Amino acid sequence: MTVPMREAHIDLAAVRDNLRVIARTVAPARTMAVVKAQGYGHGAVEVARAAVDAGADWLGVVDVAEALELRAAGIDAPILAWLHGQEADFAAAVRAGIDLGISTPEQLERAAAVDGLAQVHLKVDTGLSRNGFEESEFAAILGRVAELSAAGRIHVRGIFSHLANAGAEEDALQIARFEAALARAAEVGIVPELRHLAATAAALRVPASRFDLVRIGIGMYGLTPFDDEGAAALGLRPAMRLSAEITSVKRVPAGAGVSYGYTQRTSSETTLALVPAGYADGIPRHASSRAPVWINGSRYSICGRVAMDQFVVDVGDAPVAIGDRAVLFGDPSDGYPSADEWAERCGTINYEIVTRIGGRFTRTYS
């Protein structure tokens, strides 16, 4: 089988295993597999199918368009979409059996106005200062929510929020605010089936945040949400291996300038290997002269600046040839650099490293 020039290979068995590991930890809470942003760069449809196969109770996406893509692929599991612009097609969502996250009075009215019964999850801002009803706004809107529910225009299936992961004290404060919001809703007869607050980090470390459902994102892809504990220690394994074919190999003398600006020059006569992936493909420019690359069993570093379509690796005197594979990151248990290591070298987080991988990388699955 021919390997693509640029390949993001996704191990769906790892996705399934990771979900099961977390599901066992959080039981009896149910699980929502978050496949937003094209499944964190791994492929939304394929990951969603694997997650459902592994027992995920729900799928989570950001917007209605992402949810409709899953429905078009024949995926009939429950789906929640929670971030909406003014032109979001709520009618299409309701027809397709997609639940809607509701964060504003205007969204509530739009959902209630569509034909059919809109299944909604009310979003409460418990301190992240993003979308969601603020405390006073939530109390004021509950009467209208109860009225629309009684009229058969909406059904409140869930109430949810999101933690800031700002420390144990802040987590506890947000949990208390969330419980207060649930109590206010109960006072007007709104007792949802699903109360959800935790994503991967809180699901694993803050049992009080689990409620009825946890939203599993980064952990399902085999990456850690923590700075102080790696994926392997959590029982997780990375699902993505990112690689590209070496398309040029050349011998250069000492002092040769490499890539734009000559920010790096060779210290001795050496061999340079060209890898056809650059910032247009999601390779961070901050990886220049920093990030690790695996070639033929050995680790090297990017040499010079990452360009739009390519970067260079100084392999010294190693026998590297055109057609060999350069692995940027993958499962460190196989000897590859990890997405965590790339994130550290680039001054970012592993979430960004995998989600930014662009369309010129061909996704393959096993």
UniProtKB/TrEMBL annotation:
The active site is at 36 (proton acceptor), 260 (proton acceptor). It holds the Pfam family Ala_racemase_N. Substrate binds at residues 130, 308. Keywords: Isomerase, Pyridoxal phosphate. Pathway: Amino-acid biosynthesis; D-alanine biosynthesis; D-alanine from L-alanine: step 1/1. It comes from the Bacteria. InterPro entries: Ala_racemase, Ala_racemase/Decarboxylase_C, Ala_racemase_C, Ala_racemase_N, PLP-binding_barrel. This is Alanine racemase. It comes from Galbitalea soli. The lineage of its organism: Bacteria, Bacillati, Actinomycetota, Actinomycetes, Micrococcales.
